[in-house]
Every structure is written in structure tokens, then in C-alpha cells.
Amino acid sequence: MRRMLAVALSSVLLVPAALAQQPGMGRMGPPPDHWMTLDSLAQAVGLTADQRTKVAPHYDELNAVIKKAADRRTAFRQSMGGPMSQMTPEQRQAMQPKMDSMRTEMDGLQHQADEHYAAIRAVLTADQQTKFDALPKPQVAMRRPSPGS
Known about the structure:
Blueprint: H1 2-21, H2 38-45, H3 49-80, H4 89-123, H5 126-134
């Protein structure tokens, strides 16, 4: 009985704390600063030892690109001086060239990530590629759908 009470009490205390950690009100958090572990990838698609050796350099480069993008996003957010929602229209307008430059940089990093992702996929067998394609694709920046999409 005490054990059940302890479990129930900890659930009541931990669930709100866990929910508070998540982005709220429909906002999505930024992409992570890594893709997945090499062990997780190997297990998910069933890499052989030889494949793992061939995949590892591209996996490392892919995660380096994702980490670089995360660091750039953080630096950019800090340079803004506050959230966009608290800026005046004039401040947002003045920030537009900087945002366009950042978007261009993120597009380039996404292209690099996509190249390493494709190189990893090329090492896999057809069955492994099917499993690989079911995994979440690495993203360096979240994109809002364009109007009409």
C-alpha cells in the first residue's frame, strides 16, 4: 500500500514538472544539437561491422553539422536582444537582413547534412534503406510551412 501511495504521489509531482519542460502553446522547440547515436542507428537498421566502419565518418560529420547549426542558432538568438514578439515593427524590419542571412546559412548547413545523410544511405542494403527511411531525418532548422502548403 505504501509503495502504491509513493508511486501515485511521485506521479502527481513529476508529471507537471515534465510538462513544464516541454514547449507550450503550440510552439515547437528548436531541432536538437545531434541526430542519433551511432549505436542507435546501427541497431535500427542492422549495420554490419563493415558498414559501421564506412558509415562512421559520415555520421560524425553529420552530427558536427547539426551541432554547428545549434550553436549558430543560439548565438543568433542571443544577438537579437529579445524575442521577436517583443520587438517593434521597426526593430523586426531592421532585423530582416540578419534573419535572411541566417536562413541562407542554415540552408547551406542543411545541404551539408543532407549530403552526409545520403552517403550513409548509399552504404545500406535495400532492406536497410527502408528502415533508414523510416527514421526521423536530421534537420538543422525548423521551417514553417509556406502559405498555401
